[in-house]
Amino acid sequence: MQKKIIFFAMIALIWISTNYAYSQEISLSTFQEIAQIIIDKRITQNVTSSITLQSTSIQEIKIPVELEQRIRENGNISAVIITNQDKCVLGVMDESCILINVKRNPADTNFLKIQNSTLKISEQFIDEINDMFDTNAKLHSTFIRPSDETNIALQTSGVISGKGTISAVYTMPMEDTSSMYEKISAILIPKTIRDLGGFYDTARNLSGEENAKMTFSIIPSGSKSLLQLRVSTTYSGIASSIDKINPLEFLKTDELKRSEYFSTGFYPLNSIVQIAILSSKNTNISDVRGDILPTQIIDNEKIPTDITKNGWVFDPEEGQTIQGKYIFGKETSVDSNELKFSLGGENLKAEKQEIDESILAVIIITIVAIAAAMFYLKGYKK
């Protein structure tokens, strides 16, 4: 009898353990949705907010498989960008742009050789790109970027618009962001994903703002390309007066919902809110309305110990540069009240937590998943 009790107890224990492990299983999709707010009190005094949808799968962001493969395997192209950003390069005014960025050939010792090499590559692709987006962009110029000014304006990485980037610049009539985003997102984002809402709906609303701009980028990397569709808007000259922060105010919404695309599993790292505050003097986070997640330090970076919970990770939480990430945990939405916090003050709801051996396996999975997610967040980490 005793053996039977022990046997059934072992079965029950295995079932409970398996069920617990399954309930904690973390997945990471190639599709990501990211909301970002940058409050620059240091230089521009501007606040920039954006929504980025990105993937390495051409099933989730649709571009022709042959075109993606040819761009990636060409080996000389660092990025392809379509944007209505003001002054995409020096000399372009009131026009939208398609930029094909190429790597400089060390043998090209003067501008004419650089221009010829760049155009020889870009001309292999521009017709297909025009066909893909139903555009008729014409060659404007070849441009060697002497600084990171455009990189800052576009909020992109150096591979797209950094110092020394060589761009074949094709221009077309300027289109307002709302209609351009509607058309481009309909081409790129499958209807099944668009109909599932989430950050896509917020981006669509944001595209109607007066200063909104959009950028789509194809960035070849190894065996896949990173595909990014971004809409952003800038609020000029208001950063210096901000000490109480409501991130969703800058996204023009009271509630941010995750895409139902992630409803089939546990994808806590595929929807993230990021905030960066740049200040000329030391400040700190205080009066956080929502939760601050318990963390541990892994490779000098704060990693939440339990990403089934929703809340903030601020790293650092004080100084002249403050960065925060909000993760949803098992929640599917967050409202503006949960995201509010202040600068200055002493009321920081920080928590410390002893690491229980029973959750070590979950933490390890979390670390791996966050490391994978950081591939998509390099611009933020930088």
Write up this protein.
The protein has helices spanning 2-23, 65-74, 111-122, 126-133, 149-154, 158-161, 177-188, 191-194, 199-206, 336-339, 360-374, 378-381, and strands at 32-40, 47-55, 77-83, 95-102, 138-144, 166-173, 213-221, 224-235, 244-245, 255-257, 271-286, 295-298, 301-304, 311-314, 318-327, 333-335, 341-343. It is globular. The chain has two domains: 30-46 and 236-382, no CATH class; 54-232, no CATH class. Mean pLDDT is 82; it is low at 1-23, 150-162 and 350-382. Strands 1, 2, 3, 4, 5, 6, 7, 8, 9, 11, 14, 15 and 17 form a 13-stranded mixed beta sheet that branches. Strands 10-16 form a two-stranded antiparallel ribbon. 29% of the residues lie in helices and 31% in strands. It has 382 residues and is α+β, with helices and mostly antiparallel strands.
What keywords describe this structure?
two-stranded antiparallel ribbon, about 30% helix, 13-stranded mixed sheet, about 375 residues, alpha+beta
Set out the fold topology:
Elements: H1 2-23, E1 32-40, E2 47-55, H2 65-74, E3 77-83, E4 95-102, H3 111-122, H4 126-133, E5 138-144, H5 149-154, H6 158-161, E6 166-173, H7 177-188, H8 191-194, H9 199-206, E7 213-221, E8 224-235, E9 244-245, E10 255-257, E11 271-286, E12 295-298, E13 301-304, E14 311-314, E15 318-327, E16 333-335, H10 336-339, E17 341-343, H11 360-374, H12 378-381
Parallel strand pairs: 1-11
Antiparallel strand pairs: 1-2, 2-8, 3-4, 3-7, 4-6, 5-6, 7-8, 9-17, 10-16, 11-15, 11-17, 12-13, 14-15
